[in-house]
Amino acid sequence: MEAREILTRFKKNEITLEEAEHYFRKEPFEKMGGYAKLDSHREVRSGFPEVIFCSGKADEHFVHIFQKLYEDNGEVFGTRASRHQYELVKDLLPGVEYDDLSHIIKIEKKHKEHIGKIAVCTAGTADIPVAEEAAQTAEYFGTRVERIFDVGVSGIHRLFSRLEVIQEANCVVAVAGMEGALASVLGGLVDKPVIAVPTSVGYGASMHGLSALLTMINSCANGIAVVNIDNGYGAGYIATQINRLAVRENQEQ
Amino acid sequence: MEAREILTRFKKNEITLEEAEHYFRKEPFEKMGGYAKLDSHREVRSGFPEVIFCSGKADEHFVHIFQKLYEDNGEVFGTRASRHQYELVKDLLPGVEYDDLSHIIKIEKKHKEHIGKIAVCTAGTADIPVAEEAAQTAEYFGTRVERIFDVGVSGIHRLFSRLEVIQEANCVVAVAGMEGALASVLGGLVDKPVIAVPTSVGYGASMHGLSALLTMINSCANGIAVVNIDNGYGAGYIATQINRLAVRENQEQ
Amino acid sequence: MEAREILTRFKKNEITLEEAEHYFRKEPFEKMGGYAKLDSHREVRSGFPEVIFCSGKADEHFVHIFQKLYEDNGEVFGTRASRHQYELVKDLLPGVEYDDLSHIIKIEKKHKEHIGKIAVCTAGTADIPVAEEAAQTAEYFGTRVERIFDVGVSGIHRLFSRLEVIQEANCVVAVAGMEGALASVLGGLVDKPVIAVPTSVGYGASMHGLSALLTMINSCANGIAVVNIDNGYGAGYIATQINRLAVRENQEQ
Amino acid sequence: MEAREILTRFKKNEITLEEAEHYFRKEPFEKMGGYAKLDSHREVRSGFPEVIFCSGKADEHFVHIFQKLYEDNGEVFGTRASRHQYELVKDLLPGVEYDDLSHIIKIEKKHKEHIGKIAVCTAGTADIPVAEEAAQTAEYFGTRVERIFDVGVSGIHRLFSRLEVIQEANCVVAVAGMEGALASVLGGLVDKPVIAVPTSVGYGASMHGLSALLTMINSCANGIAVVNIDNGYGAGYIATQINRLAVRENQEQ
Amino acid sequence: MEAREILTRFKKNEITLEEAEHYFRKEPFEKMGGYAKLDSHREVRSGFPEVIFCSGKADEHFVHIFQKLYEDNGEVFGTRASRHQYELVKDLLPGVEYDDLSHIIKIEKKHKEHIGKIAVCTAGTADIPVAEEAAQTAEYFGTRVERIFDVGVSGIHRLFSRLEVIQEANCVVAVAGMEGALASVLGGLVDKPVIAVPTSVGYGASMHGLSALLTMINSCANGIAVVNIDNGYGAGYIATQINRLAVRENQEQ
Amino acid sequence: MEAREILTRFKKNEITLEEAEHYFRKEPFEKMGGYAKLDSHREVRSGFPEVIFCSGKADEHFVHIFQKLYEDNGEVFGTRASRHQYELVKDLLPGVEYDDLSHIIKIEKKHKEHIGKIAVCTAGTADIPVAEEAAQTAEYFGTRVERIFDVGVSGIHRLFSRLEVIQEANCVVAVAGMEGALASVLGGLVDKPVIAVPTSVGYGASMHGLSALLTMINSCANGIAVVNIDNGYGAGYIATQINRLAVRENQEQ
Amino acid sequence: MEAREILTRFKKNEITLEEAEHYFRKEPFEKMGGYAKLDSHREVRSGFPEVIFCSGKADEHFVHIFQKLYEDNGEVFGTRASRHQYELVKDLLPGVEYDDLSHIIKIEKKHKEHIGKIAVCTAGTADIPVAEEAAQTAEYFGTRVERIFDVGVSGIHRLFSRLEVIQEANCVVAVAGMEGALASVLGGLVDKPVIAVPTSVGYGASMHGLSALLTMINSCANGIAVVNIDNGYGAGYIATQINRLAVRENQEQ
Amino acid sequence: MEAREILTRFKKNEITLEEAEHYFRKEPFEKMGGYAKLDSHREVRSGFPEVIFCSGKADEHFVHIFQKLYEDNGEVFGTRASRHQYELVKDLLPGVEYDDLSHIIKIEKKHKEHIGKIAVCTAGTADIPVAEEAAQTAEYFGTRVERIFDVGVSGIHRLFSRLEVIQEANCVVAVAGMEGALASVLGGLVDKPVIAVPTSVGYGASMHGLSALLTMINSCANGIAVVNIDNGYGAGYIATQINRLAVRENQEQ
User: Fold this and answer.
1) In this complex, do G234 and H253 lie within 8 Å of one another by their Cβ atoms?
2) Fewest beta carbons less than 10 Å away: which of D142, D226, E47, F206?
3) Mean pLDDT per 10-residue interval, chain D, length 253 residues
4) Is the Cβ pair G7, E10 closer than 8 Å?
């Protein structure tokens, strides 16, 4: 609703002073004991519900937020959760699922529809936890996901054998550690955006993923953009945004 | 065409041995005196014609490639061109245009249609050259572009006054140097992908754009992915890919 | 007292040779068994009593220093204390308080007056431990503190809803990890000094707070200065210095 | 004016719909041909007029902005100006002054009052250009400045001989390159905030000021906060904010 | 000759005291006016004649050394030479050749035999100067070189079209800037050693070749080792060593 | 077999459509439950069987892959294995050997022939684990290895006493941490390729091996190429490639 | 003995062939089971006995080397030893002493004379472990050591009160973490060499001592040279070398 | 003179109030127009006259300081001078000498005695400018200097042929760029302190000397301390301090 509309309706007494004031001074979030401000307008604003970055949260805070979001939305999704955090809520909210590989904790509505398609590729098997975070994030947000794992450039025929599937996706997520060359090769082979996720897989001069990040940022291929090291969630999120654009009702050009 | 089709048609003598062999051994590029291999299949493969990264090219090579691409496509587009390079070709190919701000050199077909919409935002005026590279790249590839410049976070009301325009875009390109905080703020305000472009604008600990790159990679906001420092071209390219997904014929979900 | 006064009074026999000599050769600190030199003149010189940086101190040294400072001042304040260190002194000095969140250990005089006002803001909930170190440090030194937590730039309306409170403060402490953009946004919205505290919250390319530090140092906004990563104590200290300047008896201009 | 007041006055027809709408949708800046948005509300909001960061501005833009700000405020101040930029405006606006040392260009009102006091100290003579940027910035904003140059720690008696003057200041700006140790020593000797400015003076492992920046950020002394390398302007700005707090009408505590 | 042999022959008066002493105290280099020590035994010891790293040499020294090596060996080879240095010697030694692309200056014996085969590959055309330094170095040392330029991973079909030629080489030199992914892809496709040469081609976060270096060092493929950024000479040298091993008279196993 | 041959034979009905199609679409790897793609054509393509990088593999995956490779090849080799991983397979496959020093786990065929010779040198005793990984890798691949440990440059006579042995090798692996100077000294003393392996041995500014890596990359000596920090496996692999070239049937030149 | 003398005496049969050969081929070290080469000529060559860097040594190797050096020299000295290593030898060699603070393990001859004087200064109490390593190393090598701890620049009067003692030393060791400014201040106050030891004490941007190292390397004061982070042993060693030069029999000039 | 003596003599009227006050408040430096404070007590305090770091000084300041120091001391010494600066003073002070290699400008007293001995070694010829700065600095301060150039580790026999000369020195200055391994090798061969000077000679990953600095700081050899990159002056200074200790009248032990 536009400011002008609010003002006009207020003048006409269709809304009260309090309602009009609220519009301009509103606090679209819920305070939780001072330590957090849940963003309850987020789904309206961005099309995505708020999720929980579980790592580092105090036990009490985690449980409180997890329950509150579940109550509000009928489902809830947390990343980087520990098994300990799972133990905290599994008896309170029986439908909680925890995945040891991706460290995702969630209660998800049944029979969720998944639309469009993205491809999530990894260079090696050690990159799979990050790839699963990306894939499950995208799925939670309603995206259909194709997983193509262990197709790194040191044996490039493995990638070519799956190329057709990859080329059908609206967005490709390229997850790779060590030297991270997978993103460049993919960028040259598809005509859709590639979201590159460097991982901390590697040793020595990989510097916990910084080398892979630099590789991806400097890619000679086009159509590549990069998210933070190990940030599967961020990749799944932006891939979902792109996928939604591709499948929504056609815009006028 | 699929391998099976080729083989079948070859068996039926619909195509010759040479044609079949060519399919499997084809070199979809043109060699130019050994120094370059123009990617003549690129437009088919990726939907984008080949462009020229002019910086560092020898004069002779630059002129040769520029002419060749113009002959093939009826238009040609080069980034990071110097005025000297413009002098080299302006008499050979009279329609050449050169832009001192963005360092783009091009001959562009008339009456090109621009579809969809992306927004290109800058934090300051010094970021405009990179933003123009992004905007003009996207326009060359057929994208409608909205420019919103000088809306950095140090005077955040300037950004809010243009927010509606930004929110209508299919993709937002956020161009910022110094501390690069613009991308995070935009990420929290729009529901479309934000492509962040760090620039080398700044001094001291900005380290020629590395600080802005780190800011953007570490963003606490969602829906942000990052390209290389000053890489306006890369941002315009991926924004065009995203915009095309949004305006193409609706997929089945 | 000036050197000339000392000399004059010494000449007049108002002070003895020993007293005069003491003035010029004084050791304004107390040696503690060779391993430390407590700065007993500090409060006179700087207006702040000596505090203890507890981390890494040997048990015996910690207990000894903690007791000595309590005896001298009737109160004592330590940062980065472990629960183990609390156990060491809690029975010796019954009034000891320990805060698990900020890792502050202290015995504080009752009914301390708090003057002026500073605002301590955080981007997220994970930044609260550092913010509490800043806030409690400032309070121990007699400053009134307003806490505004979880107002990071990814949901910037949360910040705007508290802006008036922030703008009333004499100094704003901005505590943020990840990309640390909060400081820049605050710098553009208030007319008082902003002390920026990068935190080690984040992962991947946040490099344990170095990215946030670089963001803050490169801020495009004015009126921002930065302290070390996670250095809540340092921020609380300098904010107190600024607050004291604002509330002291008015200087002649 | 508060939102509630606006709404009430609008309801009473004391202000028109357009005026009320304007309040909520106002653009408190002037657009200059699309390339810049001068922040005409800045002085009201922050107490400081807008200044020009001249480096990198196109000639036409520089001249335009310089003139516009002069017309609006009757004075104008630019940092990091080149002699070339001075040549551009010196005939248009005859009162323009340019300082080769600090690279400041300005037209300043006569008989400006300077209040309070800050001290600007340098470690060596090579740090003076940055120190002058800080000092002249503060003076332009109405601060009285004491300059204490060439008092670095390698001959520490030079610092002690000026200590009383430094201790009288409301804020100390410590400008140092190479290893930057001056800030730590000053922090231990004064009871007012020290704003540390690392400079790019040095060679080899000084890494263009990064080493001095790290020294200052890690200082073992209290009451120190740091701005960007060579950012004299930023130091002069925040020192002025602190000085103003010290000399304004006394707050109630 | 072994120490024992020398001693025995000396005892038998087959060699003189001076000869024996010379053996143990020999200075297998020629002093040139104190500023350099030409390694005249180098060819015996390593199988490679001494070459000149021309960059940074004083004019007088460069001319002197160039002439001396030519006199001793009948040919001479210098890397990173400037056109100015070429001017200095072209009239003194008429057979001198200078290559503007690779910055190599040389007088080379006619009809030199080239044995075995190495492949020198580049990702882009901008990498060719470094590749030529590698290729011409190897050729000077008697290696047959196959050049395969502009086969970077962003259009990987260009590489596959030349793969058979590459696979026949005894050693592959992979020259690439930007993200440097070519080395990894080659490592997965050939069964011979790959010597990777990062180049300073790129911009932004390429950090003058450091990113490409990190990519190559962290390669997930086997059989790759890396030399310094832009070190074509070093790659040509070690590739020659490997090629010589492959073509020399067969060892007993 | 060449594409032309396949096509000709297919036309002549010597091979079926499926066989021909398979040639062009083949997947030369075995999928293992989606999480890995074993490269079963690797030995044919590269002359080396696939080995296991054990670190970070899930227990179930590790056991599965270890067994599969053993079944296929009659032997199996894993690097960076933990004692825990050894416990997992030692009862399943009784011939498994585990080496606590090099962290290698393997089942190796008896009476393997070792050909040629490489030398593996270390600077100190703390570098031995990495050196053993290199040596045992090379031995597994059929290379004869000479170990020369603890010959670092701080007592350079130790190196000279073993120089003749080193000079007889076809390739020298130089393993060193701290400042990594061993590689440079070796490079000047032998006429064969030196593969330098920086190790993470050291403290302080060694930065976990980065300093040694930089030393080796910048070596002033010729004939040196570098692998990743602690990458003994990579060094043993490429040294084996070089050694094989030296001992194979003599090529025509 | 000179080579010429050896040869002459050998010719005269004053020494045998074996003795002469031994001179030229000698191995001045003892091999210990292949894993180490104890440098038994070290004391003759350098004036210092070999010491043990205990960290990372296998138990068996540590015990073996510790015993061997004790047997050879009647005393033995190890740095960076763990309490576990002390347990290993304390019953075998009853005179062993272990210091938890400096992590030094040793058996030292009684009544060792200490000559000359060096001063070992620390900035804080947390730097004492490194300072003790320096001091005890120097004492083991026969140097008289003055300890001056906790005299950092944040309370510089503590340093001045001990300045006379420091100025009497032949060499000053300056041990400091955090910003490491102590070295610069000392360098300006004494006329003897200052050996600066950065420590890993600090947090945040101290980067485990790298910041302090950079501060010390960039010092604006003269007469300062730097050793590795936490390298107390190295500082004690070179300080002893300098002290010995100062107290030895006077050279002719 | 001690404080007590001053006070006693003052009481006895042997010195006036002004004299006594002067003692405690003295300014042992001369102010030069506010921009510099020449340290006229330096020679007394440190045994070294003040020298000029010419780089970056304004012309007027340079000339003024150069003349003032010449007048005070009868000689003057400046480092990092440009030929332009030489032009400025060569006519004013006819005895001025300028050395294009070391960039030293000086007027030196005739027949200066040089005592003791230091050795200045370089790895290559490109390191000579830094080595000459070290050597000429030491000579200006009265040290006898032996130059041993171009003895880098890639041809280590060159070093061994000069070893005896090096071993006779009281202090060895090791000047090396690229990988900087010379310092480690020298540290293992001499029993005197080695002052290591990394140089910016190199390219690629040498990072302007940072790699050589890291090599030297991490040296596995003992008796090495490091100064800043290209800091020949600093090395010559501390080497002179050490040499003076070695040749002065013998201390009592």
Assistant:
1) no
2) E47
3) 70 78 54 64 70 88 91 92 96 93 95 95 93 97 96 86 91 96 93 96 93 95 96 97 86 47
4) yes
User: What pLDDT is recorded for position B43?
Assistant: 63
Chain H neighbors (3+ CB pairs < 8 Å) = C, D, E, F, G
A191 or G157, which is more confident: A191
| Percent of chain A with pLDDT strictly greater than 90 | 64
CATH code for the domain in which residue B138 is found? 3.40.50.1970
Which of C23, C25, C37 is best to mutate for the G interface (most G CBs within 10 A)?
C37
Contact D223 C241 (CB under 8 A): yes
Same structural domain, D45 and D135: no
Enclosing domain of residue G223 = 115-252
Instruction: Based on the fold, state whether residues E135 and E196 are members of the same structural domain.
Output: yes
User: Which residue type, as a one-letter code, is found at position D44?
Assistant: V
- Mutation target to probe the H interface, by most H beta carbons within 10 A, among E59, E228, E230, E233 is E228
d(C-alpha F220, C-alpha F214), whole Å: 12
Chains D, F in contact: 3+ Cβ pairs under 8 A?
Answer: no
Which residue, of C70, C86, C107, is where some domain finishes? C107
> Could B181 and C178 be called an inter-chain contact, meaning their C-beta atoms sit closer than 8 Å?
no
Residues of B in contact with D56 (CB under 8 A): 126, 201
Pick from D87, D107, D127: which residue ends a domain?
Answer: D107
Contact criterion met (CB below 8 Å) for B83 and B54: no
For residue G116, give how far its alpha carbon lies from the nearest alpha carbon of chain F (Å): 27
Q: For residue A18, is pLDDT > 80?
A: no
CB-based contact G125 C36, cutoff 8 Å: yes
pLDDT computed for residue F21 by the predictor: 66
| Predicted local confidence at residue C30, as pLDDT | 59
Q: Residue A16 has which token pair?
A: 């009260």
State the pLDDT at residue A143: 97
Rounded CA separation D122/B196 (Å) = 38
Specify the amino acid at residue B206. S
pLDDT at position A1 is 44
- The C-alpha angle with vertex D56 and arms to D50 and D59, in degrees rounded to 5, equals 85
Q: What is the DSSP string of G14-77?
A: SS-HHHHHHHHH---SEEETTTEEE-TTHHHHHSS---EE-TT--HHHHHHHHHHHHHHHS-EE
The mean of the pLDDT values for chain D is: 88
Nearest-by-Cβ selection for D219 from G124, G155, G179: G179
CA distance C126 to chain A (A): 7
Average pLDDT over residues G57-74: 89
Instruction: Examine the domain organization and report whether E197 and E234 are in the same domain.
Output: yes
Tell me the nearest-neighbour CA distance from D46 into chain B, angstroms: 11
Residues H145 and H221 in one domain: yes
Three-class SS state of H76: strand
Q: Are residues E170 and E89 in the same domain?
A: no
| Burial (0-12, 13-18, 19+ Cβ within 10 Å), E76 | buried
Report the number of distinct structural domains present in chain D: 2
Q: What percent of chain B has a predicted confidence (pLDDT) above 70?
A: 86
Instruction: Indicate contact of E with F: 3+ CB pairs under 8 A.
Output: yes
E54 with E145, same domain?
no
Strands B52-53 and B76-79: parallel
By the 10 Å C-beta count (0-12 exposed, 13-18 middle, 19+ buried), F59 is classed as: exposed
Please indicate, yes or no, whether residues E189 and E154 belong to a single structural domain of this protein: yes
Whole-number Å distance between alpha carbons of F196 and F174: 5
Mark yes or no for CB contact D193/C227 under 8 Å. no
- Residues of C within 8 A of A213 (CB-CB) are 204-205
Nearest CB to F221 within list H154, H180, H219: H154
List of chain E residues whose C-beta atoms are within 8 Å of the C-beta of residue G8:
17
pTM: 0.88
Percent of chain E with pLDDT over 90: 63
Residues of F in contact with E235 (CB under 8 A): 225
